[in-house]
Amino acid sequence: xxxxxxxxxxxxxxxxxxxxxxxxxxxxxxxxxxxxxxxxxxxxxxxxxxxxxxxxxxxxxxxxxxxxxxxxxxxxxxxxxxxxxxxxxxxxxxxxxxxxxxxxxxxxxxxxxxxxxxxxxxxxxxxxxxxxxxxxxxxxxxxxxxxxxxxxxxxxxxxxxxxxxxxxxxxxxxxxxxxxxxxxxxxxxxxxxxxxxxxxxxxxxxxxxxxxxxxxxxxxxxxxxxxxxxxxxxxxxxxxxxxxxxxxxxxxxxxxxxxxxxxxxxxxxxxxxxxxxxxxxxxxxxxxxxxxxxxxxxxxxxxxxxxxxxxxxxxxxxxxxxxxxxxxxxxxxxxxxxxxxxxxxxxxxxxxxxxxxxxxxxxxxxxxxxxxxxxxxxxxxxxxxxxxxxxxxxxxxxxxxxxxxxxxxxxxxxxxxxxxxxxxxxxxxxxxxxxxxxxxxxxxxxxxxxxxxxxxxxxxxxxxxxxxxxxxxxxxxxxxxxxxxxxxxxxxxxxxxxxxxxxxxxxxxxxxxxxxxxxxxxxxxxxxxxxxxxxxxxxxxxxxxxxxxxxxxxxxxxxxxxxxxxxxxxxx
Length: 572
Known about the structure:
Helices cover 40% and strands 10% of the residues. The protein is α+β, with helices and mostly antiparallel strands.
């Protein structure tokens, strides 16, 4: 079985600024190039980067971050090959066909990556990484090995460096993967422990009684789903399964990964799985009037609109709250707002945060026609440092931040400008080039967050509304401190998501038929009007899935995951 390119966690991340190109940071600030830029001959490197989404006004960028990169490395980046206008993949395909490739190629298109490698249009990087990529080899050897494992020619060589290695979706304010709940209502109810999903339904019903209408007089609900979108139905395990330590990713919904055991377990064929627990939870919520009855046909845009109007009292991830905390403050009701709570959450081995241990979707390569390959690797090596990550995320030292008592801190002027100046990112370069990070780590081993707005000091000084009330009530320094204290709360799903059956095989056909049937049949169950009907439907579906060969398909994935784990371990 071949391994597809690793699934990316940051595909939905938002870009900021005119030239915004991405997101995320390991090595200490001192780990930059040992040769100062004054000792290096200045060089201009051409770059094609498909993360350039907003068109650039000029090919040489001169914002403070780009200028600092030039000072640190002696390298000027020329974006002439792609300024963000038009279709990036079509442009790169044309460059490939004409053999006019730039020095640096950054692409997320797996088909093009395969062609570049198979047609020997990009260099094998192993020797360059060994001689000039010390930050990469010392800090990211696992990610490099995963890239070797995924090479389309399977020759054990390294052709691309992944971006944003060890980045992910961590945020000190809210979790994207656990239950977000209205703190003010939960607090009024006495902050009861919620150890099961049944208890969660009961809690949400009481919260609805406290606030049955939103500010516009429309009905509030505990939760909403957007089952009118195919991918919405695939997210029903989020929140519940994650809190139970089950990662739902890959395999067309055939399996979950048990975090504690690090092995795959049945998702659909086990009647006691986290998937079926989640469906039973939503069915009870529907029968109790807690689930928005329009969930069966709701589209993603509609659920965001309702969430933005404050009509849901909880969601299975912060991204479904649609900025409602800020809206509550703007509406003059700062006491209202959401926090991440440990609803039916295990005491260890959970999925609160995702990490890109194999990097994100953007792969960095060097064309075989480049006459400056060593300098390109110097750039890659710099971008793999904490110094580079902190520069890209926060802007240059002296402009937006300085060291205070041995730790970096934003200046008072920068804090004020971030709040009041809509052009702050363009003027300072802060987060303007977030997709340039190769080092995606959030924690600098020197003892601070690479995003300086995530320091406890900054958060406590600038937090407002319900989240401020929450940390004061709980004695926390920042909203996610309680969840962060749970051991083994951050998970990668790059390996499990890379698994697939062989295209055109009998097993692949069975898998496709199973996924199609299960996606439709299980969604209907949520809206059964009685528990008896739900249980009868559940039994019928599981029996049908077994007749369709789900146990055979699951066994393949189970064994393949164990095999690939061993293969990766042997590469270390």
